[in-house]
Amino acid sequence: MTSAIDREATEFQPNFRIRIRRGIAGKLSGSDIFLPISPAVRILIVAYLLIYRVVLPFAAAMFNPDAQPLLGLRVTAELVYALLLAYPFLFAKREYGWLHPLVLPLVLNLGKSLTKNPFSLFFPFDSPVVDLSVASISRAVTMQLPLIDLAWLNLQYTLLLCLAQAAYLAAFLFGPKITVPLLTLYRPKRVRMVSIAFAGTLFLIVVGFILSQGGVNTLLVAMRGGRSELFEGSGQYLFAAAAMISIVAVWFMYEDQPWKNPFLLAAIALSVVLGIITTGSRSGAILAVLSIILLWWKRRGQVLILPTMGAALLGLLILGGFGAIRQDYSSDTVNTEAFNPLNYGATLSRALEDIKNRGQEDSTLAALAGANKDGLLWGTTYVYAVSFWVPRAIWPDKPRSADSYNYIYNYRGFSRNITFDDVSFYGFPVNAVTEAFWNFSYLGVILVFGLLGMLHQHLARAASVYRGVPFFWVVYIIMLSEFDGSTKDFVDLARTILLLLIFAFCLGVVRIGTRQRPVLRTS
């Protein structure tokens, strides 16, 4: 007899001619696979974008002398950008739900913005979402500019954001529709055993790396001197730490009662803790927690408010607590008092202070100013992305990430012909928009975000085909939450997808030379 879940899982779009051969665990299907958004919530999101990104920042700027240069032009550009962001809510379709590619990245960015700066919601004049002041206290050499030049730079950056979002939407809505491949997929076997084996192997690799660095205390103290140079040549260990959560997420999706399995809960906790201890990436730890929350949404078929709010508070604790540990430059020990619940108020204050200090560096604007001043990179960072699999021991002069170039060229002011062996280096973040411009100017922005729009369109259509496959939703959430078009994210994503493919073979989701019935197959 066919279960209710099996019947739901057969509700594929008929034009794809897919049929279920065996049941699929988990409540994954239904008529609204992206979790619909109510009209009232859509209106609230549009109102937030217009009020908090345009109206309130403009009101605050009216009384700020540092915001006056080109204020009218910059506010108009911000309005255009806000309207482009609001497209899936202004021109809503029922399929544009919470997990839809047009919506989820935007909601995640809004969530991260509010997590990093929660006061912006209640004190928008003191902590604006968009600061229209053009004065900068950045240490970057390229940011030492007159106020009017900084105003033009800010305007250029907002226009680049508009161009990127317009190219993305055009490609998503009107780009070519590449046929979704109809893969033969099978019901996995021994999910717990294989997941524990994979996660356990990664755990041993990570623990071995930590011990080789002198232990947790020594590693965390060493991070205070900068992670880019510290982890030179150790990318495989950092990847092992960051990738654990993807394996655990697959296990989470196939487990009948995930929150009642102590081994799975321990695996989730270890993945997050070891990830942040090993890589030092606070955003990586937050994304790890967030991926589990989003997959929980999908399992339940609804948005879960309380768990999401809990994840936001945990994110603030991670930002403040780990930031306090990593940036206590005067000490050669680790003070774990930052994670004491009794000290949560101080930890929260430290988190907000750290976020403010990082924002004052204007690292993305520094990279844009460097591109205007010293010229383009002409694909250097994209060569780094496609050659990530080549060890630096074999190719010592292999290009590096945009973050590293940003520090060396735009913060230190070194010339383009310097070698990284000659200097100590850090990394200052460069987002996907500025990186695309830094490499190939405006055409680069159009190409990169056009390709991103086509990828998201393909994912949206693939979700209709593989709506009943838990493994697909793990890959789907990872691609939408962790890849925004930057080369650094591309490298991390490519490694994770490769690992998940190997994991899929070991689980039996994908098989070679078998006669067993598949879960999905073409008719």
Automatic annotation (TrEMBL):
It comes from the Bacteria. The chain crosses the membrane at residues 40-63, 75-92, 155-175, 196-216, 236-254, 266-297, 303-325, 436-455, 464-481, 493-513. Coiled coil: none annotated. Keywords: Membrane, Transmembrane, Transmembrane helix. Signal peptide: none annotated. This is Oligosaccharide repeat unit polymerase. The lineage of its organism: Bacteria, Pseudomonadati, Pseudomonadota, Alphaproteobacteria, Sphingomonadales.
